[in-house]
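Regression test case RT-17, inverse folding.

Input:
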């Protein structure tokens, strides 16, 4: 999962970013509304965590702009505690959820997972696909009910493919889910993760479309 965090408070921003990364979420962090809008037009994010009071463009204006150009990206708004009008205005402007500051990082992580599920039309927290089960909250995977040890980026690669079964993802699209701004991407990294996943799970799960990318069939054997 790749998230854009828009928060101008340096302490809160760096804390939230670190917490998200710890939970296996790739988080890009910007402290101003205009930069956030530029990032959102350049990259597809799985979700946005949006503070309202921001320099250069406030959070509500940014949210309204996103929705007026029909950008469906799930948005979780950070509001001041007790500010009911902020929550109402935020939801009416197209936010999908909100959290009042100060909040618990575990709750933010859980709400983001729920947003991601809803945006993909997945009703259950555990992703099931053929013989595989993936629990994004526990970062745990099983094959035929037996736990499989996956490294964080192997897990994220598999998660991206399972959230898009039947759709081919290019290497660049998978990289976008795994790496944030300033992360170094080794060439062939995705090939290596796919190779490891095939070995740890089973070879036929992830199919290659030569020159295009990878996919997991909707009903894998
Ligand atoms: Ca602020």
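Golden output:
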């Amino acid at each position: 999962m790749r998230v854009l965090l828009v928060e101008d408070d340096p302490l809160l921003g760096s804390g939230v970013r670190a917490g998200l990364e710890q939970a296996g979420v790739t988080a890009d962090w910007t402290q101003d509304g205009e930069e956030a809008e530029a990032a959102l037009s350049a990259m597809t994010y799985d979700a946005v965590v949006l503070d309202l009071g921001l320099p250069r463009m406030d959070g509500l204006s940014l949210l309204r702009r996103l929705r007026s150009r029909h950008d469906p990206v799930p948005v979780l708004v950070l509001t001041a505690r007790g500010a009911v009008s902020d929550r109402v205005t935020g939801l009416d402007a197209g936010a999908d959820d909100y959290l009042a500051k100060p909040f618990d990082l575990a709750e933010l992580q859980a709400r983001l997972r729920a947003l991601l599920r809803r945006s993909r039309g997945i009703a259950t927290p555990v992703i099931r696909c053929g013989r595989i089960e993936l629990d994004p909250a526990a970062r745990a995977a099983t094959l035929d009910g037996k736990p499989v040890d996956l490294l964080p980026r192997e897990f994220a690669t598999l998660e991206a493919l399972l959230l898009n079964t039947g759709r081919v993802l290019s290497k660049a699209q998978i990289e976008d889910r795994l790496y944030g701004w300033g992360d170094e991407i080794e060439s062939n990294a995705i090939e290596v993760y796919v190779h490891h996943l095939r070995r740890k799970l089973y070879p036929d799960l992830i199919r290659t479309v030569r020159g295009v990318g990878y996919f997991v069939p909707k009903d894998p054997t």
